[in-house]
From TrEMBL:
Compartment(s) where it occurs, according to its Swiss-Prot or TrEMBL record: Cell inner membrane
Protein name in UniProt: Multidrug-efflux transporter
DNA-binding is among the record's keywords: no
Major localisation: membrane
Pfam family, one: MatE
Gene Ontology CC terms, in alphabetical order: plasma membrane
GO biological process, one term: monoatomic ion transport
Length: 450
């Protein structure tokens, strides 16, 4: 049987999945690298600037990741159409996804700016509060183009074209770092803006990445059979509604996880700039390692969706579990990296010795949840390949808002463990999510075989 779990079959599927995932991985790492560059470069100005960027980035990342989830419906839709050989349906789906992106992006921009009101109720100095709010106000100009970019990103990856997401993200990272260098530190006669310079850089970068993706799609022959820009097409509300029904639960799922981490950042703020900064560095590096299993997950949506579109549920189950296994294997490696290199990681982000010392202890806690974090993102992505998004949403809400945050508050605030208590709660929440999502994938994949 070509899809039984033999060593040879697993190697073949792992190679196929990696072929699809590695450009996505490079692109994801480059995208997250923008946030890493923002925090690391600001960390070498002052602890106050780092705290402001950390808080502003917490709001930005919550909104950004939620938008990514809402836009991810196009991945499953196009993958199923490609698997079924219905290429003629793809252009219409992409055009409607772009209309959806316009509405989602504008709404996200408004919500991000409203979210800065929470800074008025935290234990912050006026300067940190004002700088964090200004960071969000400026960077939010990148949300509408980001939503459109993610629609085209999902279209491209689902027709097995992952190279552009890698190349464009790398160019975006180079642009971001260069403009940061100009504006954060005031080089070449530019004004010294500190953390606000990072917001200007990232907001502009989102527009450039969208433009680059449009040019790539227009010029590459691989897009010709499904090229979406042959003619004008207005919004088709039933199609957009169907995309929202699939995409909104994914967005809520992403929100449940990232908002739990973001809420921790806001709650830790009461303990001062050292706790905020150390927490943000540990979270930032964890987000960087998370990009590997996330990239496997994005590839899984395509592989599983195409297998189901071809009417092969046995292959879809095989693909799903190979992907989960690959994510778990990387989880082991990333945990070892955090344990063995925690001192060097902390020093790379900041020269403040107090922040370094606390960050080292938080990285040990971050190492604990690498396996469960990898497993839960791979399993939830495989479920999305089945066009199932509501159940993962329910599980993530339970895991993060029902387990992680209450436990984190009990330990962090009630027992005065500060950031460490919240990280213990997050570890428990991720473990709950991994177990429940794995069980859901097991049952669904068997049921589809019949």
């Amino acid at each position: 049987m070509p899809h039984t779990f033999t060593a040879a079959n697993i190697r073949r599927e792992a190679a196929a999945l990696w072929q699809l995932a590695w450009p996505v991985l490079v692109g994801q790492l480059a995208t997250v690298g923008m946030g890493v560059a923002d925090v690391a470069m600001t960390g070498h100005t002052s602890a106050e600037q780092l705290a402001a960027v950390s808080l502003g980035a917490s709001v930005w990342s919550i909104v950004l990741v939620t938008v990514s989830g809402v836009m991810m419906a196009i991945n499953s839709i196009v993958a199923h159409d490609v698997g079924a050989g219905a290429l003629a349906k793809v252009p219409h789906a992409v055009r409607q996804a772009l209309w959806k992106a316009l509405g989602v992006g504008v709404l996200a921009m408004l919500l991000a700016n409203l979210a800065t009101l929470v800074f008025d109720h935290l234990y912050l100095t006026p300067r940190v509060r004002d700088q964090a709010a200004l960071f969000v106000h400026i960077i939010s100009i990148g949300l509408p183009p980001f939503a459109a970019y993610r629609a085209l990103y999902g279209y491209s990856t689902s027709i097995n074209q992952t190279k552009p997401v890698m190349v464009i993200a790398l160019l975006g990272l180079l642009f971001n770092v260069f403009v940061n260098w100009l504006l954060v530190f005031g080089n070449w006669g530019f004004p010294t803006l500190g953390g606000v310079g990072c917001a200007v850089s990232t907001g502009l970068c989102m527009w450039l990445m969208l433009a680059a993706m449009l040019v790539w799609i227009a010029r590459q022959p691989a897009y010709r059979p499904t090229y979406p820009f042959t003619h004008w097409e207005g919004p088709h509300w039933p199609e957009i509604g169907a995309m929202l029904r699939l995409g909104l639960p994914i967005g809520v799922t992403y929100f449940a996880e990232v908002s739990a981490f973001g809420a921790v950042s806001l709650l830790v703020a009461r303990y001062g700039v050292v706790q905020i900064s150390a927490h943000q560095i540990a979270l930032n590096f964890s987000s960087l390692t998370f990009m590997v299993p996330l990239s496997f997950g994005i590839a899984l949506i395509t592989r599983v969706g195409q297998a189901l579109g071809e009417g092969q549920p046995v292959r879809a189950r095989f693909v799903a579990w190979v992907g989960v296994g690959m994510a778990l294997a990387f989880g082991v490696l990333s945990a070892l990296l955090m344990v063995l290199c925690r001192q060097q990681i902390a020093a790379a982000y900041t020269s403040d010795l107090a922040v370094q010392a606390l960050c080292v202890s938080l990285l040990l806690l971050a190492a604990l949840f690498q396996l469960s974090d990898a497993a839960q993102v791979a399993a939830s992505s495989a479920l999305r390949g089945y066009k199932i998004s509501r159940q993962p949403m329910q599980i993530q809400l339970l895991a993060f808002w029902g387990c992680a945050l209450p436990l984190g508050c009990w330990l962090g605030l009630g027992h005065d463990m500060a950031a460490a208590g919240f990280w213990i709660g997050l570890t428990v929440g991720l473990t709950v999510a991994a177990v429940l999502l794995g069980w859901a994938l097991h049952r669904l994949s068997l049921a589809r075989i019949g």
